[in-house]
Amino acid sequence: MFGGQNMQGMMKQMKKMQSQVQSEQAAIAETEYIGKAPEDMVVVTFNGDRQMLDMQVKPDVIDPEDPEGLSDMVLVAVNDALKQIEADTEKRLGQFAPKGMGGF
């Protein structure tokens, strides 16, 4: 029985940490992240599960002679939102990763 209580304490702590991680993951999933292109020409909204919920495009950016310009604006806005999700995930869940193990 040597260390039995210590093992129980560790298991209790692990379950608590698991519950906290699940809570943070749920909060991230419910958060909306808004990515923007310069001058808000394209604005996209994602949830924490990386699903696009909305996209707004200013009419000024729609140029039939320059479809690549619109594509570029969409890419900038989408990448902006995804970077926000990644940063928030790292901030919220990074505390639970062992040092040097990041990668949430």
TrEMBL record:
Keywords: Cytoplasm, DNA-binding. It holds the Pfam family YbaB_DNA_bd. GO terms for molecular function: DNA binding. The keyword Cytoplasm applies. One of its GO terms (cellular component) is bacterial nucleoid. Gene3D superfamilies: Nucleoid-associated protein YbaB-like domain. The keyword DNA-binding applies. It is found in: Cytoplasm, Nucleoid. Its main location: cytoplasm. Binds to DNA and alters its conformation. May be involved in regulation of gene expression, nucleoid organization and DNA protection. Homodimer. Belongs to the YbaB/EbfC family. PANTHER family: NUCLEOID-ASSOCIATED PROTEIN YBAB (PTHR33449). This is Nucleoid-associated protein IV50_GL000694.
